[in-house]
């Protein structure tokens, strides 16, 4: 700022980095509507997601604690687990259903939880995109593989 | 208030009547984009009565030591909500915080509220905050003809949303929310509180629209129930409870 410019406010804090020809960079406010800002969705996805977390959580408490109790504590504990033990359990449709429901609920519950964690913590949109891609790929792979094993398990395999 | 009166002297210690003033260090986070792009801490030792407020200390610095110190304040009595700032790491109103209540033996750190762009020293750009507030339509919405007399409401109906009418829009809650820090698209507690004030008003008929807005992916479902907002509110509004009530209204509306 040249000394000749008549200004109501004097240069109180030393030399300025910016002047009329070299203005300070414009900072875009975070909530401003731009082409990049996310569209309003008008869906109930987040509502169902939130509700799913609560309901699946309740069911998982029973399923997972029951699973751990049977596998690790009752009837000889962890030492009893072997191919024969798994084959025996999966001969019954009850345990097949138990494991299938536990697999799906636990995977979706965990994936949705991680999705919200990524939304909360990933700052750059590209980071967010790739982390979520990785998460969804891993989830789909695990769920499909687990389901395949439960349904096509062959106790007579050599 | 500025003249300390000492009519109640403890009998044993007449020497302590000498001066109520103590030396307090104000450690203020200074930022001036025209000088430097980096913010830095600056210490101001001041003589002040510990029964005074943090705002009085800031005034003392601005008026007597360093006139370039920049902060907002208007009414200075906890009503206008201009001087929310992060004092000792907690969002408070400088005009409602007494120095004796925040341990004057250690330096008192003062910085701008988080999650909003700092313009200078303790002044932030409040536009995103007020944009979120506007987005929830904080005004009475009714249908049909206007009644010829006032819209009556029972005391119970008024009580339903009484807590959320106390909001002064100081942004202490929104700028204490970790979700808002990281993603400015989240509406933030203050906007939800002000939506709650109309959603649960028996005279209002726009609740459905407001719930629809808050049902969006940046609406109430991003709340992680950390209670930072309830702790920060200088008006004692149960902010997290209000957010949960909006969630419950959304759930019961659907099922």
From TrEMBL, chain A:
Compartments reported by the entry: Membrane
Pfam families the UniProt entry points to: Sdh_cyt
Keywords: Heme, Iron, Membrane, Metal-binding, Transmembrane, Transmembrane helix
InterPro entries: SQR/QFR_C/D, SuccDH_FuR_B_TM-su
Chief location category: membrane
Entry keyword annotation includes Transmembrane helix: yes
Iron-sulfur found in the keyword field: no
Residues that span the membrane, as ranges: 51-74, 94-114, 134-153
The name this protein goes by in its record: Succinate dehydrogenase hydrophobic membrane anchor subunit
């Amino acid at each position: 700022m040249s000394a000749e410019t008549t200004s109501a406010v004097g240069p109180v804090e030393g030399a300025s980095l910016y002047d009329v020809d070299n203005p300070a960079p414009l900072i875009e406010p975070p909530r401003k509507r731009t082409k990049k800002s996310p569209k309003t969705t008008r869906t109930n996805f987040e509502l169902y997601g939130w509700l799913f977390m609560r309901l699946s959580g309740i069911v998982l408490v029973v399923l997972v604690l029951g699973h751990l109790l049977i596998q690790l504590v009752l009837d000889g504990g962890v030492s009893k687990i072997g191919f024969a033990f798994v084959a025996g359990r999966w001969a019954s449709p009850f345990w097949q259903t138990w494991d299938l429901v536990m697999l799906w609920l636990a995977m979706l519950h965990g994936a949705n939880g991680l999705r919200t964690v990524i939304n909360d913590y990933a700052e750059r949109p590209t980071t967010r995109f790739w982390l979520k891609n990785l998460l969804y790929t891993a989830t789909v792979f695990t769920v499909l593989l687990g389901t395949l094993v439960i349904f096509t398990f062959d106790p007579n395999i050599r | 208030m500025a003249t300390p009166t000492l009519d109640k002297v403890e009998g044993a210690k007449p020497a302590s009547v000498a001066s109520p003033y103590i030396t307090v260090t104000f450690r203020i986070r200074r930022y001036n984009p025209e000088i430097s792009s980096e913010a830095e801490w600056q210490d101001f030792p001041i003589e002040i009565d510990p029964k005074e407020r943090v705002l009085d200390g800031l005034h003392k610095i601005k008026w007597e030591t360093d006139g370039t110190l920049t902060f907002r304040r208007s009414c200075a009595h906890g009503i206008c909500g201009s001087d929310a700032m992060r004092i000792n790491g907690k969002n408070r109103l400088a005009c409602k915080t007494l120095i004796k209540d925040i341990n004057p033996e250690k330096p008192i750190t003062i910085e701008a509220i988080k999650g909003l762009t700092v313009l200078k020293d303790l002044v932030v750009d409040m536009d995103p905050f007020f944009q979120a507030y506007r987005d929830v339509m904080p005004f009475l919405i009714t249908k049909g003809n206007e009644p010829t007399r006032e819209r009556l409401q029972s005391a119970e109906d008024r009580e339903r949303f009484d807590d959320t009418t106390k909001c002064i829009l100081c942004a202490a809650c929104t700028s204490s929310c970790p979700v808002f820090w990281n993603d400015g698209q989240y509406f933030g507690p203050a906007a939800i509180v002000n939506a709650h004030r109309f959603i649960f008003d028996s005279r209002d008929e726009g609740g459905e629209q407001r719930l629809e807005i808050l049902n969006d992916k940046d609406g109430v479902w991003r709340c992680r129930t950390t209670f930072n907002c309830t702790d920060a509110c200088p008006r004692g509004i149960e902010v997290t409870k209000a957010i949960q009530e909006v969630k419950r209204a959304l759930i019961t509306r659907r099922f």
